[in-house]
Amino acid sequence: MRGLADAALLAVVAIGTVAGVPALVRASWPRRSPAAAILLWQALGLAGGIAAVGALVGLAIPADGTSVAGAFWRLRDLTLGGKGDPMALLVARVLCLAAGLALFMLLCWVLVAATAAVIHARRRQRALLALLAHGDPKVPGALVVDHPAAAAYCLPGLRSKIVVSAGALELLGPAELAAVLAHERAHLRERHDLVLLPFTALRRAFPRFGRFADAYYSVALLVEMLADDRVLRARPARELVSALVRVGTAGQVPAGALAAMEGSEGEVAARVSRLLHPARPLPAPVVAGICCGAALLAAAPIALLLV
Amino acid sequence: MTVLDRLAKKGFARRQRDGRAWRYCPSATREAYVAELMLTALDQTGDRTAALARFARYVSGVEAEALRDALEQNGGGHEGTG
Fold it and tell me: N or C: which terminal CB in chain B sees fewer CB atoms within 10 Å?
């Protein structure tokens, strides 16, 4: 870290990641290789956060620091000794440092709060399921809740559960139910909830900032597509398509829920059209390139901070 | 006793002193609890924690239309297996 120059570079990275969101949202290649795209989204988020904090810290520390720790000592000497830099510059430096630390703590807090909310909601769900749900031979390994509306979901975690409503059990045939279970098991096995958590956290903390919501909906859709792809390893696409269409059109969208689902509008249709007209996955070298790019993107701000 | 005690701690049962004993009663009906589960499952709570992953949410009229178009283009809709 060498003061202003690196701070400017980090600021460019931070702004670049936010500016890159719409491009990645609009891109069509992620549907061909969801896993690579999810990796890139993670790298984009990580790089953006670190670069934003790093840019503020970089503004604070003097240019002749050799490392972050060294620079902090130098800053302390300058602040206490009062020699060299004019007072106004010192004040600006301390303010930048405070802003950087505050942003860092805010980001950590956002993640912790979202995790706590998820854990709380899952505990409540598990307690309710323990009281209400029962098994059914039609869906081995899953829990059934007696309600006429069609719904199927999974509750990720160490004690994960797959839940199917009686309505869904009624609506779907054995092959469709098997596809639903395979889809949910893929979510649980690969812990897609953890992949999505940082984006959920950002959207939850900054509901007015559209780019966070866009990023969240993109990653959420990619995660569904990834789970769909896992189903296709063992089962034909038509079972999954049929289950998606049946469950998706089984109920009315209540007027009140429209605002809540604005960004996921079209999600089911997108998954179905992708299953009906599968595009070839990206060639292996391209996927490898994307993964390297993601690694570089995440590593660059860290390297700038530490070196 | 222990089971009811735990249920009370989790808020599923209410208890009242009756002399030296506790009297327990359920704090909500089974239907209310099922409704709570399903509201979350159908994503109608406006909750943004994403504690669970749904297989597919209910689609709007516009999206249902798009689905029908996609299926028709693919060869005359889907066959029921139910």
Answer: N
Residues of A in contact with B10 (CB under 8 A): 127
The two three-digit tokens of residue A42, written as one number: 């993670």
- Average of pLDDT values for A177-199? 95
Q: What is the pLDDT of residues B18-49, one digit of tens each?
A: 888 888 888 888 889 998 888 888 776 656 66
- Put simply, the answer to whether B70 touches A128 (Cβ < 8 Å) is no
Residue A217: give the domain boundaries: 134-276
Q: How many C-beta neighbours within 10 Å does residue A217 have? A: 20
Enter the DSSP assignment of B17: E
pLDDT band at A254 (very low <50, low <70, confident <90, very high): low
CA distance B9 to chain A (A): 12
Distance between CA A112 and CA A263 in Å, rounded? 24
Q: Total structural domains in chain A?
A: 2
> Can you tell me the distance from the alpha carbon of A282 to that of A34, in angstroms, rounded to the nearest whole number?
10
Q: What is the ipTM of this complex?
A: 0.79
Q: If you measure CA to CA, which chain B residue comes closest to A206?
A: B48
Q: Residue type for A87, please?
A: M
| Max Cα–Cα distance, chain B, nearest Å | 73
Task: Report if residue A208 sits inside a domain.
Answer: yes
Quick one: which of A209, A223, A221 has its CA closest to A270? Answer: A221
In chain A, residues with a C-beta closer than 8 Å to the C-beta of B50 are: 118, 193, 196-197, 200, 220
A166 occurs within a structural domain: yes
User: Nearest to residue A186, comparing CAs of A224, A157, A151?
Assistant: A224
Least confident window among A6-20, A27-41, B67-81: B67-81
Q: B interface toward A at CB cutoff 8 Å?
A: 10, 12, 30, 33-38, 40-44, 46-60, 62-64, 66-67, 70-71, 73-74, 78-82
For chain A, the straight-line distance linking the first and the last C-alpha, in angstroms and rounded, comes to 6
> What is the structure's pLDDT at B78?
47
Q: Is residue A122 domain-shared with residue A234, that is, in the same domain? A: no
* Residues A270 and A297 reside in one and the same domain: no
Cβ neighbours around A227 below 10 Å, total: 25
Q: Are both A108 and A140 inside the same structural domain?
A: no
The whole model's pTM is what?
A: 0.87
CB contact (8 A) between residue B67 and residue A183: no
